[in-house]
Design brief:
Blueprint (H helix, E strand, L loop, with lengths): L1 E4 L3 H7 L2 H10 L1 E4 L7 H8 L4 E4 L8 H4 L7 E4 L10 H5 L3 E4 L1 H20 L2 H9 L14 E8 L3 H10 L3 E7 L5 H6 L3 E2 L2 H7 L2 E4 L13 H6 L5 E4 L8 H9 L5 E4 L19 E3 L12 H16 L17
Parallel strand pairs: 1-2, 1-3, 3-4, 4-5, 6-7, 6-9, 7-8, 9-10, 10-11, 11-12
């Protein structure tokens, strides 16, 4: 079994520990990209005679011409999140199966959302700023527990579902908006299915976990922001395109929303004059929720596990079929 490692050397080291590489070599004959290039010609040569290909960020789309070199290719293991930049109709038409490491990245994303929810509810950011400015806040009433409040979750895929799971440890009511999931499925997760307007109106904390698709573009806009509670907390660890940033800035300048915690923006990096940067209760991180440096090596472990399942003929836990593409990021 030939395994073509399409990633350039630096990314290989980031995602695959020495132990993971040892495991990969146990599973098959691994041919690595040692050039540092990821152009179509380089990738095409690596694919020659391969049974399995490992792709990641920066790997070009696997086109018909490139796949001619790999008549035996049966599996593409994508060591990253979205597969949309890699897969092609030709790949699926040939019956080549695809897996994604989105579920691995999503756990870090949901844990980041959980941390932001706790910090924002406790008013950590404002207290920290006040103390740095030489003030010791006497009023502790702005600090809230995750107790007896509504937490809204928009999108209940890998990250959203894990966020709901984390919330089970707290005495909160969890509301979920996800048109693709039934009431029964959401109830089984321990949450209640609601419509879009209700989740914006009723949530004390609203966490976005939806994919970047046409239906979700600027779903947080002037109208939906107007539905939110004045002291609500908005968290986005999903995709920047979900929020109309101009509308969010306009809204927050009026004093509405306790915090907006944004790990993602649109575009990235954002323009230096983005009006959100002038709003002190708008909290930013640079798209790190799913990419903690040591956490990335979970991806290598996951890829090895899925390749072993594939070789044994077992169910692939993270397979991405062609009909799933329209509903994922």
């Amino acid at each position: 079994m030939k395994i073509a490692m399409l990633l350039e050397e630096e990314l290989q080291r980031d995602l695959f520990s020495p132990a993971a590489m040892e495991e990969l070599n146990r599973l098959g004959e691994v041919v690595c990209n040692e050039t540092g290039d990821r152009d179509e010609e380089t990738i095409g040569k690596l694919l020659k005679g391969a049974d399995i290909a490992i792709s990641s960020w920066g790997t070009p789309r696997l086109t018909e011409e490139m796949l001619r070199n790999a008549p035996n290719l049966k599996l593409v293991a994508h060591a990253a999140g979205s597969v949309k930049g890699v897969v092609s109709d030709e790949l699926y038409d040939r019956g080549i199966r695809v897996i994604s490491s989105a579920c691995v990245l999503s756990r870090g994303v949901s844990e980041m959302a959980m941390g932001l929810a706790i910090a924002a509810a406790k008013n950590v950011f404002a207290y920290n700023a006040a103390i740095h400015a030489g003030n010791w806040p006497a009023d502790k009433n702005e600090a809230r527990e995750l107790f007896d409040i509504n937490v809204g979750v928009v999108g209940c895929g890998f990250a959203g579902a894990h966020f709901v799971e984390l919330l089970r440890e707290y005495g909160v009511q969890v509301l979920v908006y996800d048109p693709g999931l039934s009431k029964e499925r959401i109830r089984a997760l321990g949450a209640r299915k609601v419509e879009l307007e209700e989740i914006f109106r009723e949530s004390d904390i609203l966490s976005l976990h939806a994919p970047s698709i046409e239906a979700t573009n600027h779903m947080v806009n002037e109208e939906t922001l107007g539905w939110m509670k004045d002291d609500a907390i908005l968290i986005n660890t999903a995709r920047g395109s979900l929020i109309d940033e101009a509308a969010l800035a306009k809204c927050m300048k009026t004093g509405k929303l306790k915090y907006a915690c944004l790990d993602v923006m649109d575009p990235e990096p954002p323009a230096a004059d983005n009006p959100l940067f002038q709003i002190p209760n708008c909290i930013f991180t640079p798209h790190v929720a799913g990419l903690a440096n040591n956490g990335k090596r979970k991806i290598g472990v996951h890829i090895c596990q899925e390749i072993e399942r594939f070789e044994k003929g077992e169910t692939l836990v993270t397979e991405v079929t062609k009909d799933m593409l329209a509903t994922i990021a």
